[in-house]
Amino acid sequence: MSSEDLENYETEAELALYREYRDVVGLFRYVVETERRFYLANKVDLQVRSAGSDIYFEVTMADAWVWDVYRSARLVKNVRVVTFRDVNVEELDHDDAMPDIRQLRGGR
Q1: DSSP letter string over 89-105?
Q2: How many CB atoms neighbour CB 89 within 10 A?
Q3: What predicted TM-score, i.e. pTM, was given to this entire model?
Q4: Residue 25 carries which DSSP code?
Q5: Terminal-to-terminal C-alpha distance of the chain
C-alpha cells in the first residue's frame, strides 16, 4: 500500500466518521472534549478531584458516542474518563445549527 493509498483511506474514514457524527448529533445533549477524545453524551457528571497538591478531573458519561475513527463500535453505554488535562463540556442547543466538528476539534 502506497502512502497515497493510506492517506486516501484515512481521508475517507474521517469523512465517514464526520457523516456519522452529523447523523447522530441531534440525539445527544452534551459535547464533551478531553485531550484524547471527543464525545457526544446525554448525561455528563464532571467532578474536580485532588490528590495531594494535584488536581484532576473525573468525567462520567452515559449514553455516549465516541469520535474515534479506529473504533468500530462508537456508541457506548457508560464512559469514565480521569485526566489531569482540561475538560470541556458544552450543552448543545438543537435550535441552532449543528456545531462544526472541525471547529470543536481545533481544525484537526
Answers
A1: EEE--TTSPPPPHHHHT
A2: 17
A3: 0.77
A4: G
A5: 24
Which amino acid would we find at residue 2? S
The pLDDT assigned to 1 comes to 78
Instruction: Look at phi and psi of residue 101 and say left if phi exceeds 0, alpha if psi is from -120 to 50, else beta.
Output: alpha
Percent of the chain predicted with pLDDT > 90:
60
Closest to 83 (Cα-Cα) out of 56, 55, 50, 61 = 56
- All three cell numbers of 82: 480521569
Cell triple for 91: 450543552
Read off the C-alpha cell for 103: 471547529
Name the 3-class secondary structure at 12. Answer: helix
Phi, psi torsion values for 42, nearest 5 degrees: -100, -15
Task: Of 5, 27, 24, give the one whose Cα is nearest residue 16.
Answer: 24
Q: Which residues, in sequence order, are CB contacts of 22 under 8 Å at separation 6+? A: 98
Phi, psi of 20 (to 5 degrees): -65, -45
Across the chain, the runs of DSSP E, i.e. the strands, are: 30-33, 38-51, 54-67, 75-83, 88-91
